[in-house]
Amino acid sequence: MLIGEYLHSMDAKGRVNFPVKLLRHFGESFIVTKGMDGCLFSYSLEEWGKLEQKINSMPMSKARSLQRFFFAGAVEVEPDKQGRILIPQSLREYAGLQKDIMIIGASNRVELWDKGTYDQSCSELTADMVAEAMDELGF
Predict the structure, then answer these.
(1) What is the pTM of this model?
(2) Each residue's pLDDT tens digit, 75-86
(3) How far apart are CA 75 and CA 59, in angstroms?
(4) Quick one: 38 exposed, middle or buried, by C-beta within 10 A (0-12, 13-18, 19+)?
(5) In terms of DSSP bridges, do strands 109-114 and 100-106 run parallel, antiparallel, or are they unpaired?
(6) How far apart are CA 39 and CA 117, in angstroms?
(7) Which helix (H) or strand (E) holds 134?
């Protein structure tokens, strides 16, 4: 399971250090793609394969938009010896990534957020919203 919040700085070339604890889960390479809510998603190759299978099992009328969204801009990245990954310009623009990047574990994926966007998103989540979701799950 991928968990935790990590703050890292992105350099002028679009490289960001990836937390060692998360890299251990991903191995030598992994996928970075557009995510929901203005962030990027990162998946291990195994989890990426599961997502691909689920989307491809849908009827084309429903799958085609998801295929374009997730697969067209996706890249396979390999961390360098310092544990940095290069985020392509198109993905940096999509997520509005500036200098300070929040990297968070989100169960089966990692999310990369611009810190300001992440902070705003977190501030919009209320205790009542969490309680309601927990009720739906039977907790």
Answers:
(1) 0.91
(2) 999 999 999 999
(3) 25
(4) middle
(5) antiparallel
(6) 8
(7) helix 127-137
